[in-house]
């Protein structure tokens, strides 16, 4: 099974697309995780540049945040179709809102499933604060009701919501791992969706816990005999990373830390399997 490493556009919005794709390609990543403009000319300009660098891509949907459910559903549908039409590896979706009812969020999940069935492009839903799957125990309820769900595992959000490393929610976490097909590799803590720097020994416990979860997800993909699994190292820019007081100097370097995470995962898999 292949492990595809994907680099996020998040945090590189000030870099033009060509420079961004070139840097990611030269660093050895397999692809990028990006949203796409709704305007046709801008959208196909991005896709053509992407093609020039022979990079794969994960379509990211995060934009829909309407409070009125009918508007939300319509815009959700619009953004999903905008992404699936570009034929990504799959779509990673920030789906629903935490204040919608269970049935309303369920309606959005069924809509996504219909679009997936129609187009053949997988739609995977991210575990994320403020969305339908904002906490481990809530995720378990949705997985029970909608067993077809596929997840992007970003458990940093669940740790922050639960104010723990989920030690007391192991059943829900194991259930989510079984349904995870994409990893957002960012290390969180009981107090934050992102620690300052995973290379710091102060965060050894958090780094160890997250590496354990990521390895279980990779092992699960192996047991399913999947062709590949995708991992996006996703250390976030400000305000995820903090600034030194009274400056705009980030306490963590996003590119360096994402590279550290990628290399640590590769090293761990080599130790387990002898190769990646």
What does this structure look like?
The protein has 276 residues and is α/β, with parallel strands linked by helices. It contains nine helices and eight strands. It has an eight-stranded parallel β-barrel with strand order 1-2-3-4-5-6-7-8, surrounded by six helices. Helix 5 (136-145) links the parallel strand 5 (123-126) and strand 6. Helix 5 crosses helix 7 (170-178). The longest helix has 20 residues, at 204-223. The mean pLDDT is 96.
List the helices and strands and how they pair.
Blueprint lengths: L1 E7 L8 H10 L4 E4 L5 H13 L3 E6 L7 H16 L6 E3 L8 H18 L3 E4 L9 H10 L5 E3 L1 H8 L7 H9 L1 E6 L18 H20 L4 E6 L20 H20 L3
Parallel strand pairs: 1-2, 1-8, 2-3, 3-4, 4-5, 5-6, 6-7, 7-8
Record keyword descriptors for this entry.
276 residues, 8 strands, globular
How do you describe this structure in short?
The chain has nine helices and eight strands. With 276 residues, the chain is α/β, with parallel strands linked by helices.
* Secondary-structure-derived class: alpha/beta
- In which range does the helix fraction lie? 40-55%
> Average pLDDT across residues?
96
> What is the tally of helical segments?
9
Alpha carbon gyration radius? 18 Å
Order of neighbouring strands in the sheet with most strands: 1-2-3-4-5-6-7-8
The helix-strand sequence is EHEHEHEHEHEHHEHEH
- Oligomeric status of the shown chains? single chain
Separation of termini? 8 Å
Low-confidence stretches: none
Tell me the strand percentage band: 5-15%
What overall geometry do the principal axes of the alpha carbons give? globular
Major sheet description: 8 strands, parallel, barrel
Strand tally: 8
């Amino acid at each position: 099974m292949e492990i595809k490493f994907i680099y996020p556009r998040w945090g590189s919005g000030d870099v033009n697309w060509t420079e961004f794709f070139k840097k990611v390609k030269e660093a050895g990543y397999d692809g990028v995780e990006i949203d796409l403009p709704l305007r046709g000319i801008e959208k196909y300009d991005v896709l053509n540049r992407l093609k020039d660098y022979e990079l794969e891509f994960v379509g990211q949907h995060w934009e829909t945040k309407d409070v009125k459910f009918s508007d939300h559903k319509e815009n959700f549908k619009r953004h999903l179709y905008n992404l699936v039409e570009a034929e990504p590896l799959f779509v990673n979706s920030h789906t629903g809102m935490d204040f919608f009812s269970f049935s309303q969020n369920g309606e959005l999940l069924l809509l996504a499933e219909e679009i997936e069935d129609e187009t053949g492009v997988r739609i995977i839903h991210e575990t994320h604060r403020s969305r339908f799957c904002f906490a481990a125990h809530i995720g378990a309820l949705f997985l029970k009701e909608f067993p077809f769900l596929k997840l992007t595992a970003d458990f940093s959000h669940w740790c922050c919501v639960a104010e723990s490393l989920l030690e007391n929610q192991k059943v829900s976490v194991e259930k989510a791992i079984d349904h995870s097909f994409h990893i957002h590799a960012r290390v969180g803590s009981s107090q934050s969706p992102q620690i300052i720097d995973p290379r710091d020994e102060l965060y050894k416990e958090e780094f160890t816990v997250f590496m354990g979860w990521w390895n279980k997800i990779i092992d699960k993909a192996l047991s399913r005999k999947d062709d590949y699994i995708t991992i996006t190292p996703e250390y976030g820019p400000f305000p995820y990373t903090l600034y030194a007081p009274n400056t705009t100097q980030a306490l963590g370097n996003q590119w360096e830390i994402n590279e550290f995470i990628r290399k640590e995962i590769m090293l761990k898999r080599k130790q387990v399997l002898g190769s990646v």
